[in-house]
Amino acid sequence: MLLTFIYMILTWARARRLTPLRTYLFRVLNSSNSNNLPNYVKPSLMCHIKSSDSSKPDVNSKQTDSETSHDLLTSHLCSNKNTAKLYKLIWSVGDNKLCIIIPQQKIDVSEWLVYPPGKTNFPLSVNNCNQTKLADDSKVHLLIEADINNFNPSAFTRTIKLEDYGLLLSWTADKLFAAIMETDIDHMSKLSIALMESFCFINNGLLLTRIESVEVSGKPCSYNINQSSLGNRKLVGKAQWKTHMETLKLFSSTARRVSQQKEPFEVDTLPGIIVSPGTRSLSLQMPTVLEISHQHDTLEAQEFKTEDSTSVPKTPPPTPASLSMMDRGDSVRRSLQMSSNELHTTLSRNSETPDNQLSVANSNYSSTQNIDEDEPKETKSRASSDANLCERILPKTFKGDPFDMSYTNRAEKYSEKRKFQNYPEAGKPPNVLIYADSTLASDNIERVLKQTLNKEKYIIYKLTPEDARRDVWKDQANLVVVCGNVDSEIASQLVNYIVKGGKLLALCSDALHTLLPSFKTAEVREHELVRFSYGKWKNVQMMHHIFCYQASPIKSRFSQDHEDVKTTPVTPASSTVKDKQGKTHTFQVRVLGAEETWHTPSIVLADLPTTGGKALFSQIHLEADPSQYEMEEAKFEALKASNPARLEILSDLLSSHLGVDVKPVASGDVAFNPGFFLGRHELKLEMLERLKDKMETNDIFKTNKIKLQFCNNTNKLVPPSSSILPIMLHTCPDNFSTIEYFENLKTKDLGRLVIYADIMTSSMDVVAGCKLHHGLAVIPRQQTQGQGRNKNIWLSAKGCLMFTLQLHIPLNSYLGNHLPILQHFVVVAVIAAVKSIPGYEEIDLNIKWPNDIYLGDKVKLGGLIVPTLLESSEAICNIGLGVNLSNSTPTSSINDAIKKYNEKKGTNLAPLGYEKLLALIFNQLESLINSIQNDNVNHFYQLYYDYWLHTDTQVSFESPDGAIREVKILGIDSNGYLEVQSLDGKVFSLQPDGNSFDIFKGLIAPSLSR
């Protein structure tokens, strides 16, 4: 208990230091023109630590006194180090300091090396997988420097992991080890605090001496280490580290030579290791596309696809047009020629793609293929040549018929046109978007919304200024929350959003003046605590907005204390606003709450009856947590006392006036239960025997995300929680019918072993980063942290069918050489499982590329992710799927579709059962995998094109240079990438590209042309 209490105190103290530092750095580094900097110079943050743990320097390492002195201010690696001047000293103890320097320091990384992605021990032991979520509005490049002479592998108690603070992009080694990291101001602040608290050791036990925000230019060199054990070596002692450092220096000296002479060179004493000139600049907007990782792969192979000639089909994969000419037996011949209206889709659950864009983002695959050590060099070298074939293009709009005449022959090969059943339009997607003018305000809003909203119905995302100025979010938001200042362009976007039926909550924002032009700034109230009343809540003390807006006309001066002021400025009953197109809209205006002293309106509602659009304005800081004012004792006590009322008022405003569901599932209500290990006894023993050597005390096995305890009759059951899942070996669950499941399961491997739990964090956590068993299914009835594509959230409502299925696929098989196509197998298996039941063949389930399941063409029911790890000769694929089976919210469900089908057709089809559908999906998936592994590829394509939505759709793309390209969708290629044809007849493939936020950044990148 004492240790816990001490830890809480330390955590609280650290948080108090972090918040003001983060706020200050955000203001200085992001808005230098508002901080009286000379000529609006952009500054750098520099934190330098001269630790007492430093040992004596290496005798071979020489540094002059002047160099040592200058390095206290900036790094010797910076190209403009001689211009560096101290602007502001934030913290200093001896030679240790945290300061702002001007101008911003610059580093050219042309002589550096690219840092490999994924888990690697070269050059340092890190998990460089971009797992850290970075804020798009405050990204920076950070220089990391570490003392190579202070390797201390036993410094675990004071070690911080660099990967917890951002993504490592490049490195070099000479007098010290240096790396460039992509991070944001929040994580940079945390790292600075850690340094100030003397947590100075990083990965490999290196002594961290400096972090510094820098501007990066140049293209770092690339290299291959697949023929060497460099990437596998785990360093134990100082002798091994010294040898390792000599290797790093050798790589760096080779990189300098390569950069100067602009040609590749082999690393001395390391035959076959080639360092090549850089081809890609380091950008703060670099998308992360890698999900398949293998520490033996070359960097080029991890970025670009290398296909062995034996793995490429002799003929291209069939398209919908070509398949229509085959004998397809009882397969339904259907055309999917779509108009732009038919392709209008709503963004459901994991907030993926706007309605005017094709859903092509974040398939969670890369085009990586494993390169065996004995593979010919000619094959390996193609990885880098493929890079020249890649350029990125951004989808703009769908365009319907008429098509260009050059497409006519191909399109007419489909004789039957697809007609979708008349399903109602889905409601607004469950996205709540936050736009704030500071990170602190944004975090405050997110925190209070998580306390207030129904966690099973809404997903919270943050809007960057760039995204807010675009149109794509308007149809994807159930609610938009704005705090602080908005510029005129964003304000105009908000007006257009509201007049189309959108809901807006504006907290202490000048957006009020945009929608209510008659409201003017009456006075300035900086950090003022006021009393206001709303509904049943009277005289509540809370912080007021710095500006006080009220309706005009107002008095020319404020009344004196002796004056009898009882008149209140009259708020107009309506307000007229013009949208971006110049059309006039009249809002009804109503004051809901008022400040008690001056009677100024505190909460105002503007309602547009014609469309249902509403805007709710608060001049009270409903988002501010009382802890922000701990340093002001009187305010803190008052706000703490008012905090329950603050949450109640916000909840009432959202539910009563904006139609938001505010019945939160409290975190305390989440009761984790033990899981159950289901399947044949001999299969269980086989898996447990394989894991035996990796188990800890009490039969606990640790994955990358959670601990699993396999419980028999002898060991003690640990309490289940979000961090540990006890799994009962010899009992069956009450809420899962093993009879129904195993009676319908006809597979050899898939689903034969099951880990089931009523509730768990995520089924993906159970298999994260580990090889368990081929065909193992992890099945939760409910999840608390469901995962969508590329870090998006999957709402795991009760009634949703979810599982993670682990497959071990040989890399020398057809599927092993075309791993990205596996995602398409899964969506086909789900739809085929439903349609395989007699009477259910016409339930209108369809595929939206790359891997979404749709009801008709408008309502999303499900999706999947397939993170993959290459291990030796196998690919370990963890298929995570979620599909709405019985839950009608937030979109619709399969059983809803069956009910509507019964009403329309007069049939009496029963709702599908949870256990039966799981078994049927696994049956279909194993059948499809066996079919393609036995070279019957066309069977899969026939099913796929029966269900998909995009045949003959014409799409307009915009390339980065602004050029517009028109293409027509033909089908998918052998890897599952989208195959299209341009107007000039050129056929090429488009592959999904990973992004931090699908709803705004749906990129498509061209693959290989032919």
Stretches where pLDDT is under 50 for at least 5 consecutive residues are 1-7, 9-14, 52-69, 286-315, 325-417, 554-566, 993-1010
Regarding quaternary structure, how should these chains be classified?
Answer: single chain
Largest sheet: 12 strands, mixed
Q: Give the overall silhouette.
A: globular
Structural class per helix/strand content?
alpha+beta
Total E-strand runs: 45
**Separation of termini?**
67 Å
Work out the helicity level: 10-25%
The averaged pLDDT comes out at: 75
Q: Please report which band the strand proportion falls in: under 5%, 5-15%, 15-25%, 25-35%, 35-45% or over 45%.
A: 25-35%
What would you report as the Rg, rounded to the nearest angstrom? Answer: 30 Å
Number of helices: 20
Pfam families: BPL_C, BPL_LplA_LipB
GO molecular function: biotin--[biotin carboxyl-carrier protein] ligase activity
InterPro entries: aa-tRNA-synth_II/BPL/LPL (IPR045864), Biotin_CoA_COase_ligase (IPR004408), BPL_C (IPR003142), BPL_LPL_catalytic (IPR004143)
Protein name: BPL/LPL catalytic domain-containing protein
How would you sum up this structure, described in words?
- With 1010 residues, this protein is an alpha+beta fold.
- The protein is 23% helix and 26% strand.
- It is built from 20 helices and 45 strands.
- The strands form seven sheets. Strands 29, 30, 31, 32, 33, 34, 35, 36, 37, 38, 39 and 40 form a twelve-stranded mixed β-sheet that branches. Strands 1, 2, 3, 4, 5, 8, 9, 10, 11 and 12 form a ten-stranded mixed β-sheet that branches. Strands 17, 18, 19, 20, 22, 23, 25, 26, 27 and 28 form a ten-stranded mixed β-sheet that branches.
- Residues 1-7, 9-14, 52-69, 286-315, 325-417, 554-566 and 993-1010 have low confidence and may be disordered.
- Keywords: Ligase, Signal.
